[in-house]
């Protein structure tokens, strides 16, 4: 008791434990995503670069709570962009699972992977209790982690009618699916959109994304949709990769909150307005607008 509240010390200990105990699944969870800021030296000097500098491998898992739910900036500040900017040479895995089965299989695959590298998980918050994120028992007892999840509502027959591919990560995907389905039920434009979830951002799931592009041959537009402001999140990391792969075939654009100094607004009312605007731009206006 009365111990020093030092994420630097705690994460440094867990990193060292994961290096020494190679057969142990070592997991460190931040109370809030931004608590990792206090351990930035451990992250930059060891977790990101330990293998390249010293040949020192670690299978440490970092769970960073991250979600845009109108709870203020401290609940939305895992700073995904920092980890993506430090990702190179397969030095770590960065993921954002959206279902319980995906979460389980991600950790299971990581524990059994012969290649040891740190795993950074943008942990769900709202999705921990959301009905859309639930999985059947069979999905937990069998199967594997999918780096990319295709739109569950688009059949093979309907795939030839898709005109827009919306790529996203995390909770915003379920909100986009709800908006698209509402417009489809109301026979409004914009229903010809496929909502694709990138469950893993690094290493970049090139094969999974290629499979998505091939499944929708008539699509002419790719939209990157994110919860974070435009100067944060995945967009700066995703842009070059999407343009290189899809720039000659698709119109590529992004939808994000306006660039900001703070990760999120402290007003729940403003948060809801921002979500409405994101969905309007990416999918189309709500039938109830």
Description:
With 289 residues, the chain is of the alpha/beta class. Helices cover 35% and strands 17% of the residues. It has helices at 7-20, 40-47, 50-54, 80-85, 100-112, 137-141, 172-185, 206-215, 235-246, 268-282; strands at 27-29, 61-65, 93-95, 119-123, 148-149, 164-168, 193-198, 200-202, 221-229, 251-257. It has a 5-stranded mixed beta sheet. α1 (7-20) runs parallel beside α2 (40-47). The longest helix has 15 residues, at 268-282.
Which descriptors apply to this entry?
10 helices, single chain, alpha/beta, 5-stranded mixed beta sheet
Beta strands, count: 10
Largest sheet: 5 strands, mixed
Q: Write down the overall geometry.
A: globular
The arrangement of helices and strands along the chain is: HEHHEHEHEHEEHEEHEHEH
- Helical fraction equals 25-40%
Q: Strands of the largest sheet, in order across it?
A: 1-2-4-3-8
Broad structural category: alpha/beta
- Backbone CA Rg: 19 Å
Instruction: Indicate the proportion of strand residues.
Output: 15-25%
Helix run count = 10
The rounded distance between the terminal residues' Cα atoms is 53 Å
Mean pLDDT metric:
92
- In the predicted model, the low-confidence regions spanning at least 5 consecutive residues are none
């Amino acid at each position: 008791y009365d111990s020093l509240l030092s994420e630097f010390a705690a994460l440094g200990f867990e990193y060292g434990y994961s290096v020494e105990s190679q057969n142990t699944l070592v997991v460190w969870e931040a109370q809030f995503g931004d608590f990792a800021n206090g351990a930035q030296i451990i992250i930059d000097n060891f977790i990101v670069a330990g293998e390249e500098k010293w040949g020192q491998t670690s299978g440490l898992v970092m769970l960073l709570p991250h979600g845009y739910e109108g709870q203020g900036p401290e609940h939305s500040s895992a700073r995904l962009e920092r980890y993506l900017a430090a990702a190179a040479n397969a030095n770590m895995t960065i993921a954002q699972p959206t279902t319980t089965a995906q979460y389980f299989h991600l950790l299971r695959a990581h524990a059994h992977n012969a290649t040891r590298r740190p795993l950074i998980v943008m942990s769900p918050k709202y999705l921990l209790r959301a009905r859309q994120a639930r999985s059947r028992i069979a999905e937990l007892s069998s199967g594997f982690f999918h780096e990319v999840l295709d739109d569950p509502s688009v059949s093979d027959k309907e795939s030839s009618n898709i005109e827009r591919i919306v790529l996203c990560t995390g909770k915003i995907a379920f909100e986009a699916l709800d908006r698209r389905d509402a417009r489809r039920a109301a026979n409004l434009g914009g229903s010809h959109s496929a909502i694709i979830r990138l469950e893993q951002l690094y290493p970049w799931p090139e094969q999974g994304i290629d499979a998505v592009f091939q499944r929708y041959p008539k699509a002419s537009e790719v939209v990157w949709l994110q919860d974070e402001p435009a100067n944060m999140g995945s967009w700066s990391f995703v842009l070059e990769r999407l343009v290189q792969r899809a720039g000659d075939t698709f119109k590529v654009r992004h939808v994000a909150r306006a660039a900001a100094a703070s990760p999120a607004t402290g007003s729940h009312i403003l948060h809801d307005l921002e979500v409405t605007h994101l969905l309007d731009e990416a999918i189309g206006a709500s039938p109830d607008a």
